[in-house]
Amino acid sequence: MTTFPGFDRARRTGMVLLLALAVALPAHAATVGQPAPAFTLSDQDGATVALESFAGKVVVLEWTNPDCPFVKRHYRTKTMTTLAERFGKEGVVWLAVSSTATLDPARLRTWRSEEGITYPILDDRAGTVGHAYGAKTTPHLFVIDPKGVLVYAGGIDDDPAGESGDKATNYVALALEDVTAGKPVRTPETKPYGCSVKYAN
Fold it and tell me: 129: closest CA among 91, 174, 171, 99?
């Protein structure tokens, strides 16, 4: 077998770099049944919001984009705001997250005011938190229990076309009913639908 000077050294160096890269990159995104990834982001007004500050509470994370037709439909029918108000009375914290690279806080602030949204919209233009959770669509919903464990990930409901009306199964409502009652979430994972998250990379 023919060998070349420096070949073995280059091969060893390449293997070391690959191993280092493998260690640096997360093996996978957030997993239902495991602790939810911690994060700190700024909201539409520049206030700092840290997930850890809601320890002991149920937290909903809603990936959103005001320019997405699916999001527009759900805000027109007040799907999210009604749920947030209903379960907010039971101490549930609702946080919207925008990982859309082109949306700045000013745009989010205007949209929040137009829709009468009372919960914060967090600025994740870098996409760090979106990638950590594996957020794929807007909307994409995640529910975290009082122990900080991710107990639901998926779509808001089973009605992507918006044709079922009151007959649609709202998976997030069911998950919140279960977790606030101290029960296991009956449907912990579903397939999200909507517009793809417009990450910077």
Answer: 99
What tens digit of pLDDT does each residue of 144-174 get? 999 999 999 999 999 999 998 889 999 999 9
Question: Residue 41 carries which side chain, given as an amino acid letter?
Answer: L
| pLDDT tens by residue, 61-107 | 999 999 999 999 999 999 999 999 999 999 999 999 999 999 999 99
**Nearest C-alpha neighbor of 125 from the set 187, 188, 43, 185:** 43
Question: How much is the CA Rg of the chain, to the nearest whole Å?
Answer: 20
Rounded Cα distance, 121 and 123, in Å: 7
CA quadruple 188, 191, 192, 193: dihedral sign: negative
Q: In what order do the strands lie in the sheet with 93-98?
A: 48-50, 40-43, 121-123, 93-98, 59-63, 140-144, 150-154
d(CA 98, CA 66) in angstroms, rounded, equals 9
How far the first Cα of the chain sits from its last, in Å, is 43
Provide the whole-model pTM.
0.86
